[in-house]
Design goal:
6-stranded antiparallel beta sheet, Beta-Lactamase, about 30% strand, about 40% helix
Length: about 475
């Protein structure tokens, strides 16, 4: 709603303080439209004095054929909106009919002045189907919306005054807390709870509260309370309307969130199961790694020992991934966190205890869904293991880093070290290393990316992945 202040500043003589008031009105306009079951517009007089500027609009979710109006930011000639003009001059609410050239249906237009002192600085119009206000309930809704508009001197909490769904129950009580209106959704909800007629009952009546088994109020949302009653989970918003410190009316919006809470419980259980599965997979992989270490110690062949050690390190890389997933469940995995987890395991097993390893992880955040993590975990594991084993001969310190750059069409991962660099004549296309073969297969075939090796003040491996890989 910052646009309202900008529109006022650019095209009207409305002051900054008045523009702030209109911003507050605009923020509550969707709620007003849903409550009054109307189409709502906020108009302000343009600087030239012959037109009105449309500052905000909102349409009720229950309106089937709303009238086509000028969009927000557009100007409307004063003669096209006579009720708006009259309300600006007199400050008094007015009612009239308006039609649409594209439809034979007409709407009943209600205009209300937004006052700063005695003068009206803007006008809110509510358009409802002609004749609908002959119904006492509809008249109560529009009248309540008017009360909110006339007492919106302070900012309306966007969360409390959020839009109303057609499935939400609406209760309106008078100054004595007696219910004077209840829509069909509210009647259905309380009928399930064993309450018959709602009209005339006080909001704190025992029959409305007897089935409540649990209440919870969040400190950050004092107007909102979640209750459990009769097997239902209900979200209740309590919105009092005050004037001069006196209660005029109270609007209560009741939302049935039973299905939502049940789904959340199911997802919570599912996520707990997934976490446990990852935890068990990690434990099984560590068991396999321990068995391979045992086999390596029993072997007298150096080549066999080296091959088994490489297998152990690859298994540990995958185990590190499952360790991370066991904590995060179904949440996306940050590649920086995954690389740190793998590097910690590898450095503990492959570096001397007194080796000083500097870690540099920087650049953009790169998130991967769990289903896409294994391939990249193997790639990162192989490259980190290669750096640890070959980059720092006869040294007691070194640096390994990961830099990530997320672009519009592709993402570049740069794994680097400050070691001895690549061997002279190194050609990745002809190299027979199993680790390098794994890296190239995973990057090019599995991830659809490209890989590039360079040697400058150490070794740098750049992996370029097409945009969108992180979300597959």
């Amino acid at each position: 709603m910052d646009d309202i202040r900008g529109l006022c500043r650019a095209h009207t003589d409305i002051s900054g303080r008045q523009a702030e008031l209109l911003k507050n009105i605009g923020e509550g306009l969707p709620f007003i439209a849903d409550l009054a079951q109307a189409q709502a517009s906020l108009y302000a007089p343009a600087r030239d004095g012959t037109r009105f500027l449309v500052l905000a609009q909102a349409r009720s979710h229950t309106m089937v054929q709303p009238l086509q109006l000028a969009p927000v930011g557009a100007f409307v000639a004063a003669e096209e909106e006579p009720l708006v003009g009259q309300t600006l001059v007199t400050g008094q609410p007015l009612v009239g009919l308006r039609g649409d050239s594209e439809s034979s249906d007409s709407l009943e237009m209600h205009t209300y002045g937004i006052h700063d002192g005695k003068d009206a600085i803007a006008v809110v119009s509510l358009e409802v189907p002609a004749g609908s206000l002959q119904d006492r309930g509809s008249l109560c809704l529009v009248d309540t919306a008017r009360m909110i508009l006339q007492n919106s001197r302070s900012a309306l909490d966007p969360e409390a005054y959020r839009e109303i769904s057609p499935r939400d129950g609406i209760l309106i009580a008078d100054a004595y807390e007696r219910i004077i209106y209840a829509n069909a959704a509210a009647q259905h909800i309380f009928r399930v709870l064993g309450v018959g007629s709602l009209l005339g009952i006080r909001l704190d009546a025992p029959e409305l509260c007897r089935h409540i088994t649990r209440e919870m109020v969040k400190p950050e949302r004092p107007t909102e309370k979640e209750i459990e009653a009769g097997g239902l989970a209900l979200l209740r918003r309590d919105l009092p309307i005050f004037a001069g410190g006196q209660l005029l009316r109270r609007v209560v919006v009741v939302e049935d969130v039973t299905a939502l809470r049940q789904k959340e419980k199911e997802l919570s259980v599912q996520e707990a199961v997934i976490r446990e599965i990852h935890h068990r997979v990690k434990n099984n992989l560590q068991t396999i790694a321990s068995l391979l270490r045992l086999q390596a110690r029993r072997s007298s062949e150096a080549a066999v020992k080296d091959a088994l050690a490489e297998s152990v390190n690859r298994i540990q890389g995958i185990a590190a991934l499952h360790q991370l997933l066991s904590r995060q469940g179904t949440q996306p995995v940050n590649l920086h966190d995954l690389a740190a987890e793998i590097l910690n395991l590898l450095s503990a097993s492959a570096l001397p205890p007194d080796f000083q390893l500097e870690r540099r992880f920087g650049g953009d955040a790169f998130l991967l869904p769990p289903s896409r993590c294994t391939s990249l975990a193997l790639v990162v594991n192989e490259l980190l293991l290669n750096a640890i084993e070959h980059a720092f001969p006869n040294r007691d310190h070194g640096c390994i880093g990961l830099d990530i750059r997320v672009g519009e069409s592709e993402t570049t991962l740069s794994l680097y070290d400050d070691g001895v660099g690549l061997q002279s004549g190194f050609q990745p296309e002809t190299a027979k290393s199993l680790g390098l073969h794994i890296v190239r297969t995973m990057v090019e075939d599995d991830l659809g990316g490209r890989i590039k090796f360079s040697s400058e003040n150490g070794t740098r491996v750049e992996i370029t992945l097409p945009k969108g890989e992180e979300s597959l």
